[in-house]
Amino acid sequence: MLRFVVLTLLVAMVIGQAKNSGCNYFCTKPEGPNKGAHYCCSPPFIPLKPEEKHPGKCPPPLKDCTRIIPQVCPHDGHCPFNQKCCFDTCLDLHTCKPAHF
């Protein structure tokens, strides 16, 4: 539990820094209480890349949150080829997830 709290704080801190230093990418929340809201989904260390669409679909949302540390992403081009940039309902941001076919 402590690890999850620390991870959440780190992600929030990175997103907060992105707001202060400019943002390269904005994403839209597709679900949840802030559905439709735009947020900075590119921490400062994420380089600009051409937008890509990897094959497959995003997996269904998890019923329980995991303790896996995700890779934050603004689009598929920031994920390995076998993964998609999908909205994570637990973290309330986009992360790389294994593609479903």
From TrEMBL:
**Record's keyword annotation contains Transit peptide:** no
Q: Which residues form the WAP domain?
A: 51-100
Record keyword Signal present: yes
* Keywords carried by this UniProt record: Signal
GO cellular component, alphabetical, reads: extracellular region
Q: Which residues form the signal peptide?
A: 1-18
Q: Which GO terms describe its molecular function?
A: peptidase inhibitor activity
Q: What SUPFAM superfamilies does this protein map onto?
A: Elafin-like
Listed name of the protein: Carcinin
**Organism of derivation:** Cherax quadricarinatus (Australian red claw crayfish)
Q: What taxonomic ancestry is recorded?
A: Eukaryota, Metazoa, Ecdysozoa, Arthropoda, Crustacea
